[in-house]
Amino acid sequence: MDIKDIQNLIKFVSKAEVSEVKYKTKDFEITIKTPLAGSDAVYAQPAVYHTAPQAVAAQAPVATSAPAPAAEKAETASDDSKYITIKSPMIGTFYRKPSPDKDVFANVGDDVSVGKVVCVIEAMKLFNQIESEVSGKIVKILVDDATPVEYDQPLFLVDPS
After folding, report:
1. pLDDT over 90 (residue 44)
2. Distance CA 124, CA 144 (A)
3. What would the CATH number be for the domain defined by 82-159?
4. What GO biological process terms are annotated to this protein in UniProt (predicted)?
5. 59/92 Cα distance (integer angstroms)
């Protein structure tokens, strides 16, 4: 690994806002730690999201219209709870195809088995095949093609039955 590769790795880590990255090969190891890593923003934003809907619901003038969307959200949440989520194991760019001229790895309604490739995630010009850890049928694709994904971000919903 030359100095240019190290500089590119540092730029990638700073843009990704992660706290620590370790890169290791059989004869080389580098650890990059950042002091801020955006962890304050991650914890501050959910508090804002949780308080804003409560304030809106308390100020809603029509009481009959407010419970209906809440009931729909609860029903959707209970429907999604029976599905297993395939999550991103890394930060990178999500692709549904191995290359632009090839077919997608998986569509809604396709059966997947353990070890079947469902997508690729590009990180630092490396294309990492993401394999399914569960068997079942894909019911929803949660990420658009060629969009950035975060670590542990849900990618697919799979019905295991």
Report:
1. no
2. 20
3. 2.40.50.100
4. fatty acid biosynthetic process
5. 41
Per the CB < 8 A criterion, the answer to whether 61 and 40 are in contact is no
Sign of CA dihedral 96, 120, 150, 87: positive
**Helical H segments across 17-152, by residue range:** 39-58, 67-81
Is a pLDDT exceeding 90 seen at residue 157?
A: yes
74: left (phi over 0), alpha (psi -120 to 50) or beta: alpha
d(CA 117, CA 35): 36
Domain ranges (residues) in the chain: 1-59, 82-159
In this predicted structure, the answer to whether residue 160 has a pLDDT above a threshold of 60 is yes
Name every residue whose Cβ is closer than 8 Å to that of residue 64 and which is 6 or more positions away in sequence: none
3-state SS, residue 35: coil
- The structure tokens listed for 47 are 């508090």
pTM higher than the cut 0.70 = no
Let me know: does 23 contact 30? Beta carbons within 8 Å: yes
Contact at 8 Å (CB) between 128 and 155? no
Q: What is the pLDDT of residue 38?
A: 44
Q: Is the pLDDT of residue 52 over 90?
A: no
